[in-house]
Amino acid sequence: MLDIQKIIKDRARENVALHQNINPQFAKVLKTIGFDKSYVKALGVSLFDADNIEYYDFLAGYGVFGLGRNHPKMKKLFRDFLDLDTPSLVQMDAPLLSGLLAERLVQIFGHNIRDTVYFTNSGTESIESAIKFVRGATGRERIINLEHAFHGLTTGSLSVNGNAEFKDGFGTLLPSDTLPLNNLNLLEEKLKTKQYAAFIFEPVQGKGVFVPDQTFLQNAITLCKKYGTLTIADEVQSGLGRTGKWLACEHFDIEPDIVCLSKALSGGICPVGAVVYKREIYNKVFSRMDRCVVHSSTFGQNDYAMFCGLAALSILEEEQLIQNAAKMGKSLLAKLNALKEKHDWIKEVRGKGLMIGIEFQKPSGIKKKIAWELVHKMDKGLFGELIVMSLLSRHRILTQVSGHHQDIVKMLPPFIINETHVNHFVESLDDVLTNCDKVTGPIFTMGKNLARHIVNQNT
């Protein structure tokens, strides 16, 4: 019989080596940047490695762990649920739990406008479904997306990404056009052709944490209605409380035709996604009884995912975690902006709630400028990577670079963080940037070592 506890204990340190069978290039990257840790335990905001060293997780599985990792209520509820032996995935039935979760999603996210739900297994599948729905409902093929957009990496969602590095090498994708953020004139110029099924957007963009002008999305939706183009809000990362509200759309007082959800809806237990949309779109896609399964997913309504969605929503409300995300986000933004006044490495701090990006810039001072230019000659995105590496190696905080060739570090901490976590992060970043002031400091030594490693790997 499989003894999973023993296997994990005995082989915990083999994790990176085992990924030679999955993605050896990614394993190589982890080794190169010092992220080849063996994490063996996770609780709340914290990860623990095989040596029982604690790390603060300000990445949260790209936003999955809104509740924190292994939330005690979530674990208990899920164990109790497993004991029910529910008849999941009968397929030729109307499952109770998916009906209950759909009812709850419409109550929270429908706003008396969206009253229909389609369940998926991930964020990118939610986007794929939305693209299919708008093409079916409008009879049009093209989609408009924004620069810096990230909507997933399967073929349809990849088509509406605003970053060429993800698209390169994969041939002809679905017809789409990429527009600059906040450019209403160009948007209307495109919409006038009446070729576009939808305009898709993230209310707060994940790649770079770019926030639109306050009225841009309102005006964009008005234009889309005028020209018969539907609107899709990608709330996969920004939704479920991440920005301090149920939906990031609420910051801009907008009501798109379709809202795509995932990540935090899982409660950190079981993958789940959802598309919450208008009944008139449903009626055009699932237009007859013989088209009732014109779009479907085998695992989409499985009881385990549906239960996790119900439990996650319940815990978010019971523990007022969305309110805490708003409060801690406000505190973190204020303290980071104060740090900006101290360090001219920081160009801008931006975001909503606990979705925050820090963009860096060439500093003043000849020595620091030279150091900046040397780092950028090695790689355009290396400075941000060095910040992320130093936060992990010096202060045991897990963060991420926000995108290719961007001097932006991004934070997505769980909604459960408190002032202790906020202060530790700000003090740690202060220390890292203070060391950046020294041309001989550890961050540039690390940069030289990384560049040497890259050269050695390529020779």
Structure report:
The protein has helices at residues 4-11, 15-18, 24-33, 60-63, 72-82, 96-110, 123-138, 155-159, 164-167, 184-191, 216-226, 279-285, 303-318, 321-342, 366-378, 382-395, 419-436, 442-458, and strands spanning 39-43, 46-49, 54-57, 116-120, 142-146, 176-179, 196-201, 230-234, 258-261, 273-277, 346-352, 355-360, 397-398, 400-401, 408-411. The protein has 459 residues and is α/β, with parallel strands linked by helices. It folds into 2 domains: 37-70 and 321-458, Aspartate Aminotransferase, domain 1 (Alpha-Beta Complex); 75-318, Type I PLP-dependent aspartate aminotransferase-like (Major domain) (Aspartate Aminotransferase, domain 2). The strands form 3 sheets. The protein has a 7-stranded mixed beta sheet with strand order 4-10-9-8-7-5-6, with helices on both faces. Strand 7 (196-201), helix 11 (216-226) and strand 8 form a beta-alpha-beta unit. Helix 16 packs across helix 17. The longest helix has 22 residues, at 321-342. The radius of gyration is 23 Å and the shape is globular. The termini are far apart.
Mean pLDDT: 95
> What is the tally of helical segments?
18
Range of strand content: 5-15%
CATH class (first level) name of the largest domain: Alpha Beta
- Major β-sheet profile: 7 strands, mixed
Number of strands: 15
CATH fold assignment of the largest domain: Aspartate Aminotransferase, domain 2
Gross geometry:
globular
N- to C-terminal distance:
46 Å
Rg, rounded, reads 23 Å
Low-confidence spans: none
Query: What CATH architecture of the largest domain would you give?
Result: 3-Layer(aba) Sandwich
Class computed from helices, strands and strand pairing: alpha/beta
According to CATH, the homologous superfamily of the largest domain is Type I PLP-dependent aspartate aminotransferase-like (Major domain)
The percent range for helix content is 40-55%
Spatial arrangement of strands, main beta sheet: 4-10-9-8-7-5-6
